[in-house]
Amino acid sequence: MSLRPTLDFLLYDWLHAETLASRERFADHSRETFDAVLDTCERIAREKYAPFNRTVDTQEPHFDGEKVILPQATHDAHKAFVESGMMSAAQDYDIGGMQLPYTVQAAANSFFAMASVSIGSNMLTSGNANLLLVHGTDMQKEVFAKNEFSGRWAGTMCLSEPQAGSSLSDVATRAVPDGEGFQDDPLGPRYRLTGNKMWISSGDHELTENIVHIVLAKIPDENGKLVPGTRGISLFIVPKRMVNTQGELTGERNDVALAGLNHKLGWRGTTNTLLNFGEGKYPVGGKAGAVGYLVGAPGKGLHCMFHMMNEARIGVGTAATMLGMAGYYASLDYAKSRPQGRLVKKPEGGEAKVVKDSAGPQVRIIEHADVRRMLLAQKAYCEGALALELYCARLVDEQKTGNAQAADDARLLLEVLTPIAKSWPSEWCLEANSLAIQVHGGYGYTRDFPVEQYWRDNRLNMIHEGTHGIQAADLLGRKVLMEKGRGLQLLAGRMTETIGRAAQVPALAAHAKALGEALQRVGSATEAAWSTGDPAEALVNAVPYMQAFGHTVLAWLWLDVAQRALELDPAQAAPATAGKMAAARYFFHYELPKNGAWLNVVESRDPTCTALPEEAF
User: Which residue, 579, 600, 487, is CA-closest to 9?
Assistant: First the structure.
């Protein structure tokens, strides 16, 4: 089954992406150029990524003592991606970009994520370079960002440490000024870093001639002590190999050493590393310490890094979505071709009981009610999640090119939706992958079929770029409260607008009513959670709150998508329209009612989990 019709509907019929070409930034583009980009990426994904998804899973990265070895397929796929220009597709012409709308770039990149999510690490390279465009100096943009966008160099994000994990306030990597005149280095104030970073995706490889690490570290105070908390964190560019102001390699290795590779459940095609900074294995200028160049102001590192983290979170949500979609398509194909069992039939008279036509031929499993339930659940989760990710991408374009009010609204909506864009697909498209295995039965649990790998690959995404609990605390503890709740009010306003339109459509009126009730319940739950003003009480059930919030957002998107489908096909005659209507109906009948159980514990600030003594677990 092809992804393209679904993408085309969401991009053009629902989000009207072609209208972006009327804006000055995208004036050189049209539906034709957008389609050409989609065609190219679909072809590269089909030829260079999909055939090797199992290869990169079984031929894991390994370290030969000097360098990390990856399969040739990974090198070929990376080369094809770089040559396509997609690394810098949304960037300005003057740095080699296409000035493509981010909405179209996100849609095009979905082909790669579905074909083989772990072959490339391009998301981090792009996010790294984008961070430098916003917070770096002109020289840092020229030397580091441009070389990353060209694909000549790769980029990473180095936050976590073995003793700290996601608790960034406990970062212990140190950065000290590198001698006299350290502040005058043309590449930025120069420091020497020492410390260890863990879980660094693509932290070492030979795909590119250099790797640009973006590293969080603390500058000691005048007494040599690290400032506690997050306010002492600064951000540094630490290249794997030293470079000059012309962006040329000097031939000297920076003091960044690979300590080991992590062996993962999934995403095995991407190296995941433990890196030692400044241990003296590769002394620079005859002394230990990894050379790093300060980005932005001292102590403002986390503020700068969040620019990259937010982009990465949407990228993780898209990866989760496309893994779910890959499993859905695989299980749908299997269900259409696998004969097994027979249908029950209505008994002739007498009491009700299950009767099977044992003499008749076997039927394909897609004809069984429970298999259809599992397929429809996958469709509702994955196509709904894709709508969410593309809607967020469209907000990025609005923030960049809309008028002042529209741009500010888009900024705030993105703030509120980013935790959902990351977490919702990570949970529910993983569930879709589980259902895909179930549709395959025993075969799904074997390596003869791809669905077990999709599940393994997707299990990372609830952890990746901030765990589920972190996203939930961010949503309830910060995002819905920021700017006096204006972001939540904006989102509610957009939902209310959809509800008003859908209420006039007989086929959607009941769904509109249900969404209105769900929205009101989320609002009252938000107030109830914070009614005592105690963050510990408010956040105790932050994850159920996020689950209900996310389901409300997805119900809204399905209602909006269904209404648009009906506008194009009032008779609901087309199979695609019937499919969208059924997925929307499934979501409102089977999924949205779950909100009640989730919000009950939020509203009561239920202490069941926190009140249990440790020894009772």
Answer: 579
Q: Encode 515-556 in three state secondary structure.
A: HHHHHHHHHHHHHHHCCCCCHHHHCCCHHHHHHHHHHHHHHH
Residue 584's identity, in one-letter code, is A
Instruction: Work out the percent of the chain whose per-residue pLDDT is above 90.
Output: 90
One-character DSSP codes across 228-292: SSSTTEEEEEEESEEE-TTS-EEEEE-SEEEEEE---SS-TTS-EEEEEESSSSS-BTTB-SEEE
Q: Which amino acid is at 570?
A: P
The Cα–Cα gap between 205 and 49 comes to 18
Name the nearest CA neighbour of 380 among 551, 217, 164, 255: 551
Tokens of 491: 């989102």
| pLDDT on residue 354 | 66
Q: Are 91 and 145 in contact (CB under 8 A)?
A: no
Q: Are 275 and 98 in contact (CB under 8 A)?
A: no
- How far apart CA 584 and CA 573 sit, in angstroms, is 16
Distances, alpha carbon 218 to alpha carbons 231, 287, 482, 516, in Å:
9, 20, 27, 47
Q: Are 291 and 399 in contact (CB under 8 A)?
A: no
What pLDDT, in 10s, does the model give residues 17-69?
A: 999 999 999 999 999 999 999 999 999 999 999 999 999 999 999 999 889 99
Using CB atoms within 10 Å of the CB of residue 96, give its burial: 0 to 12 exposed, 13 to 18 middle, 19+ buried.
Answer: middle
**pTM for the model:** 0.96
Of residues 96, 48, 93, the one with CA closest to residue 74: 48
- Enumerate the active-site residues: 465
Least confident of 33-37, 343-347, 390-394: 343-347
Q: In this structure, how many other beta carbons lie within 10 angstroms of the beta carbon of residue 526?
A: 22
- Residue 144 identity: F
154, β-bridge pairs: 211
The greatest distance separating any two alpha carbons of the chain, rounded to the nearest whole angstrom, comes to: 97
Annotate 40-102 with DSSP letters as a single string: HHHHHIIIIIGGGHHHHHHS--EE-SSSEE--HHHHHHHHHHHHHTGGGTTS-GGGT-----H
Per residue in 564-574, pLDDT (tens digit) is 999 999 988 89
Which tokens is 96 given? 């080699």
Three-state SS for 121-158 is CHHHHHHHHHHHHHHCCHHHHHHHHHHHHCCCEEEEEE
Within 8 A by CB and 6+ apart from 432, the residues are: 324, 327, 328, 377, 378, 381, 382
- Alpha carbon distance 434, 377 (integer Å): 11
**pLDDT at residue 305, as a whole number:** 85
Place of tokens 């209420």: 503
CB 215 within 8 A of CB 173: yes
